[in-house]
Amino acid sequence: MSSQNPVFIPGPTNIPESIRRACDIPTMDHRSAAFPPLFERAKTGVAEVLKMDAGEVILFPASGTGGWEAAVTNTLSPGDKVLAARHGMFSLKWIDLCQRHGLDVEVVECPWGEGAPVDRFAEILAADTGHQIKAVLVTHNETATGVVSDVAAVRAALDAAGHPALLMVDGVSSIASMDFRMTEWGVDLAVTGSQKGFMLPVGLAIVGVSPKALAAMETAKLSRCFFDFRDMLKLGTPYTPAVGLINGLGASCDMLLAEGLDNVFARHHRIAEGVRAAVAAWGLRPCAVSPALYSDTVTAIVLPEGVDGNALVRHAADAYHVAFGAGLGEVAGKVFRIGHLGMLTDVMALSGIATAEMAMADMGVPVTLGSGVAAAQDYYRTNKAAPVQAAA
């Protein structure tokens, strides 16, 4: 008998059956009259999830990394200066992408486990009286370390300095799972993908583009072809779109909005708190250096010296057929990650916590079997979930 255990990686996430079925549609002529309503439904739903009052939602057949490249190449020119912090694998990768495109990246180095350095950003922006910095990059949720950064505070720093730089945000592992307020926070480009909070397979890069970013598109001179916003806005789908995924995205947005975004965010927070209660009961700690930085979509757990986190992840997969996230970059081998986003419930989270306990015990980590499960159970019993619409 084959088994279908939930995954506990921070993406791709578990797929609700109704969304799986929404992606499974017959071949459609995307130039026919049948496609535009399906396309508009998905884009309208994404705009609601982003809390986006103006601008455009653009969908590319790509992953979130394609969304990063689209954001950069459509709004900047060779040699432009951008400001970014390096504090995890995905902030590092975005910086690398910018450097490969010939941009001048001012990098603020931060320990892995910390978030975007708002105070340092504020100092740099205030000192840039000539407005040489054209964009500020923020990784809202650093997936490698389980750290969330304060996007609203970065916007406040820009405003306090009277600085016109674009605010670009990587929301790949936060959007649709954690509160994101594109218009209120003054985000100019918000990047995410289909395979995390939207609970779809990999295959769509999703970019929210503000009116200010649309204006920057007209003078930007970085080379772009496949990721050209102008072609997408003029033609809608200048090349073959991922029709099934787009239909699934519409269904996903309907599901999220039916649950209620506040309920979605509360569910993720509650499940994450249960996982963190388990971590404390094990006598371990998250990689994030303070509770204010704890992510509600992924927890990176620091293991005792001498325990290889990546070996632990492999063991959990081999022995129990359950997937956890390995450590990446500077924390490779030092942590393992429990993803708790997308289609997840308290009961599913408890199964992941129990499996993590068994795998750690097998690897010689001094944990008491049942301790983390009991701590999470206690939290979930005393912090009840809001009623939600059941996934079909």
Automatic annotation (TrEMBL):
Belongs to the class-V pyridoxal-phosphate-dependent aminotransferase family. SUPFAM superfamilies: PLP-dependent transferases (SSF53383). Signal peptide: none annotated. Its cofactor is pyridoxal 5'-phosphate. It comes from the Bacteria. The modification N6-(pyridoxal phosphate)lysine is found at residue 196. GO terms for biological process: glycine biosynthetic process, by transamination of glyoxylate. It comes from Rhodovulum marinum. Keywords: Aminotransferase, Pyridoxal phosphate, Transferase. Residues 28-324 form the Aminotransferase class V domain. InterPro entries: Aminotrans_V_dom, Aminotrans_V_PyrdxlP_BS, AspGlyoxATase, PyrdxlP-dep_Trfase, PyrdxlP-dep_Trfase_major, PyrdxlP-dep_Trfase_small, SP_NH2Trfase/AEP_transaminase. Transmembrane segments: none annotated. The keyword Transferase applies. Substrate binds at residue 337. Pfam families: Aminotran_5 (PF00266). The keyword Transferase applies. This is Serine-glyoxylate aminotransferase.
